């Protein structure tokens, strides 16, 4: 399997900081300790008091490095700086390689674009029949709701539009987006994303979900959100009540490191789960953040404790300016190999590469088939032991069986 000492492990000083990853704690109020509880717990207060400037960052984080300072100065031309006070308090100020810090504080490396990097790595613009609606797969669409997020991830696949720092000027036209779906009966699954859909007001989100639910061929609604992680205060009972009215509705959250799963995040996820919403998680494999089997194991196990099923682990998309956060695919495969068989199957996500240019998600798995012939398949289990299973010829389905049981219109 090779050496599994990772860049993040080296950066975090080996095992010394692992203790506590599985514990649920609260980041507390930190520098905002004098703010009344009712304000701190108000999601709109958190949004109004986000850290958005170098001046704020220098005051709150005296250990800001020259690379971070230079990156922050330039961030507003690429992807804005934005961090909620709640999430900011998860940063370890004494650790330049803090996995929380690397996700949200800009660095100068973001201004360097590797030859293979792109502004639209998933080729979404080429599959947009109306502004804000991506129709790439046969039976489902991506419905972009907003270009705003509670905090901004420095590796965001959609950084060309999110935060509007580079002047994309996103203006979703919900009427046109909904009309397209209404006119396309093959669309049975609508994924709301952005930006973060849960930043809409309760009223606006309720209206949008109701409009989509009124389309008879829409079977499934999904929401992609990082709000339970960046802004758990937003998951109010009122919001849960609105979401509950639009089942079947699934939510995919986005968590990369076990420290993001705090007491507050767990409570928010439990409120969503109690509203009957199946929860999945999408992680991005990031250098010095989670490119370590022990970090990933703690993350996926902790997610299950929050009633969230790990869904995808993404190889970092080829978004411009993200090379410093990218790991090798080999590293991702090593991590997957350390999960499968070593922990609960429900905890094991599918490792995927979103094929550059719009090819869609391609699963990448360690090799478990050693040999496959007409009469046997040789398998390697998670411990590296080999096992043999007999192969049998496929026999055609008898014509009479096909006619009575499978042919359209016969039942
Ligand atoms: S929350 Fe999602 S859309 Fe927003 S910046 Fe992060 S990755 Fe991008």
Which labels suit this protein?
globular; 15 helices; TIM Barrel; binds iron/sulfur cluster; disordered N terminus; 2 domains; alpha/beta; 9-stranded mixed sheet; 12 strands
Report on this model:
The longest helix is centred in the last third of the chain and has 13 residues, at 293-305. Residues 1-14 and 407-411 have low confidence and may be disordered. The chain is an alpha/beta fold and 411 residues long. The chain has helices spanning 7-11, 37-40, 43-48, 54-60, 66-75, 85-88, 101-104, 174-182, 202-213, 227-230, 237-244, 263-274, 293-305, 329-339, 399-406, and strands at 133-137, 140-144, 189-193, 220-224, 249-254, 279-285, 309-315, 350-355, 360-363, 369-372, 376-380, 386-390. It contains 15 helices and twelve strands. Strand 8 (350-355) and strand 9 (360-363) form a beta hairpin. It has a nine-stranded mixed sheet with strand order 1-2-3-4-5-6-7-8-9. The chain folds into two domains: 1-366, TIM Barrel (Alpha-Beta Barrel), CATH 3.20.20; 370-411, no CATH class. It is globular, with a radius of gyration of 23 Å. The structure holds iron/sulfur cluster. Iron/sulfur cluster binds at residues 149, 152-153, 156, 158, 162, 194-196, 226, 254. Its cofactor is pyridoxal 5'-phosphate; [4Fe-4S] cluster. It catalyses: L-lysine = (3S)-3,6-diaminohexanoate. Residues 135-347 form the Radical SAM core domain.
């Amino acid at each position: 399997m090779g050496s599994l000492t990772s860049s993040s492990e080296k950066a975090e000083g080996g095992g010394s900081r692992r203790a506590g990853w599985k514990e649920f704690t609260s980041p507390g109020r930190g520098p905002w300790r004098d703010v009344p509880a009712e304000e701190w717990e108000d999601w709109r207060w958190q949004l109004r008091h986000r850290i958005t400037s170098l001046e704020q960052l220098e005051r709150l984080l005296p250990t800001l490095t020259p690379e971070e300072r230079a990156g922050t100065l330039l961030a507003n031309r690429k992807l804005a700086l934005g961090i909620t006070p709640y999430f900011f308090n998860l940063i370890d100020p004494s650790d330049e390689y803090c996995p929380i810090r690397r996700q949200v504080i800009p660095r100068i490396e973001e201004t360097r674009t590797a030859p293979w990097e792109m502004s639209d790595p998933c080729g979404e613009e080429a599959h947009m029949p109306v502004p804000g609606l991506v129709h790439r797969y046969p039976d489902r669409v991506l419905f972009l709701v907003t270009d705003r997020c509670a905090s901004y991830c420095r590796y965001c696949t959609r950084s060309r539009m999110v935060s509007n720092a580079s002047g994309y000027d996103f203006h979703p036209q919900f009427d046109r987006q909904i009309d397209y779906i209404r006119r396309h009966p093959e669309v049975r699954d609508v994924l709301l994303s952005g930006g973060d859909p849960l930043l809409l007001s309760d009223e606006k989100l309720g209206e949008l979900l109701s409009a989509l639910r009124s389309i008879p061929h829409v079977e499934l609604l999904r929401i992609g959100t990082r709000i339970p992680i960046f802004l758990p205060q937003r998951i109010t009972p009122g919001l849960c009540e609105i979401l509950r009215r639009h089942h079947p509705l699934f939510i995919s959250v986005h968590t990369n490191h076990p420290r993001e799963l705090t007491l507050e995040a767990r409570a928010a996820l439990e409120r969503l789960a109690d509203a009957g919403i199946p929860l999945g998680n999408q992680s991005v494999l990031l250098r010095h953040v989670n490119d370590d089997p022990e970090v990933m194991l703690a993350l996926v196990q902790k997610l299950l404790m929050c009633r969230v099923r790990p869904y995808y682990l993404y190889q970092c998309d080829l978004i411009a300016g993200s090379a410093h956060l990218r790991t090798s695919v080999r590293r991702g495969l090593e991590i997957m190999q350390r999960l499968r068989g070593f922990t609960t199957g429900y905890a094991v996500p599918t490792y995927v590469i979103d094929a550059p240019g719009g090819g869609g998600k391609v699963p990448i798995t360690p090799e478990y088939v050693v040999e496959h012939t007409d009469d046997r398949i040789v398998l390697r289990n998670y411990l590296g032991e080999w096992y043999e299973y007999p192969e049998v010829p496929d026999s055609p389905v008898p014509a009479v069986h096909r006619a009575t049981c499978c042919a359209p219109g016969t039942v």
